[in-house]
Design goal:
Distance between the termini: 10 Å
Strand content: under 5%
Number of helices: 2
Largest sheet: none
Number of domains: 1
Structural class: mainly alpha
Helix content: 25-40%
Order of helices and strands: HH
Shape: globular
Length: about 70
């Protein structure tokens, strides 16, 4: 499974549960998946944990459903 920067951005843009992690310090606190902003990526989502895994286990499902 790919987990490069472009794929994580594409997944985050399609994720209905994306929520910007305001504590990341990236200035994306007001971003949402509808903005298509450069800030929207799995890495800036509050559901993406320190082990680089989605706590909601949505990454693989979104990859599969959107043929990413």
């Amino acid at each position: 499974m790919r987990k490069d920067a472009q794929t994580m951005k594409q997944v985050a843009e399609r994720c209905t549960r994306y929520s910007a992690d305001e504590s990341c310090g990236c200035g994306c606190g007001s971003a949402s998946n509808s903005t298509k902003s450069d800030c929207v990526t799995c890495q800036t989502c509050k559901h993406y944990n320190r082990e680089n895994v989605c706590d909601l286990d949505l990454y693989e499902e979104i990859m599969k459903n959107h043929n990413l």
